[in-house]
Amino acid sequence: MGEIGDTHEDLGGSSFIENLMARPIGHLREQFLVRQRAVPTGLLDALDADPRRGARDLARLIRERRRKNRVEGQRLHLLLQYELDLWANGFTLIAGVDEAGMAPLAGPVVAAAVILPKSYKLRGLDDSKKILEERSREALAECIKRDSIGFSVGVADVDDIDRVNIYHAGLLAMRRAVEGLAPCPEYVLVDARRIPHCTIPQRGIVRGDQLSATIAAASIIAKTDRDRRMADFDSLYPGYGFASHKGYPTPDHCRLLKELGPTPIHRRSFAPVRRALGLDTPLFAACEDPIG
User: How far apart are the C-alpha atoms of 1 and 243, rounded to whole Å?
Assistant: First the structure.
């Protein structure tokens, strides 16, 4: 993982290219495809003209890698559209905020706030829901934490959720994440909503985790942080499969909830949990801004 950049060719004379072509194709593959070192001028033409099939295949693969790099670079540039506008207007510390864990029947809501360096481009950065491999999400999260100007995690636990309802608990977690940021951001971009009682200028962006690099980065940190918490709960409450389903209402989770009953981390304000407790009436009446 790392910041994406264009591949630039080094200038190389004919004797230099000849020396390279005298080496095994496996060596060239390791240097210019696996390690992605700069490709010297003339090497691709030499590979194309080489009678060895492996040489021609290597030239094709290098060109395909370059094409993918260009496409990824363009995608990441578009992902900075909101940040570029704010940077152009004098804002330098822009935070993206997103949460994870609104739909599960158990566990907390976890929000993250992230301030990225200006024009930051990280290969693979995207909405966490689009990154299906847990290992890839974890690797991206580590890169973001390492490279960020600042990041913070805010949590609304089950007691918060059952006290103020899940919607307001998500906002509470977001507010806590922003309040934990150092340095303090100058502007906040939020996925789909606006954070109440936040004095920093902010903008809610519908599908922001797909349209803003900083919000996408926050979504990855929030998701990976919450997943680790649910894995810890799996050890604390064995038999429920929290490490697998992360508290979401999968068929197995719903079955186990009925068979074993709720744990202390199950959300009593959620209908399936209330039914498992023999409570059929809605918990919440209409309320306005209970987190103020």
Answer: 25
